[in-house]
Hints:
Layout: E1 3-10, H1 13-26, E2 32-40, E3 43-50, H2 53-61, H3 63-72, H4 74-77, E4 80-87
Amino acid sequence: MAVLVLLEMDGATDALLASAADLEERRPTPAILARVVAPTESGAIVCTFWESAEAREHYQSQPEHGEALRESGLLDAITDSRSRVFKDAELTLQ
Length: 94
């Protein structure tokens, strides 16, 4: 079943948005069916809709993921973060 992940990141908004875009370019995957990135008052939010929990876990467990996170600058740009995972999510585009 599909999984929706909400990641709220605190930090400089422009740096977070640029780093998130850089990470997406470094580690594209067909397992992500949709992604929304938006600025917030305290930084940025990334909403990612994965095809399955297994696909997400596989992607994030690969050493290349940690390397891409570091190289994108995202880890340095985040001052604090919160995430929530919603299992059995449904995506409807209109």
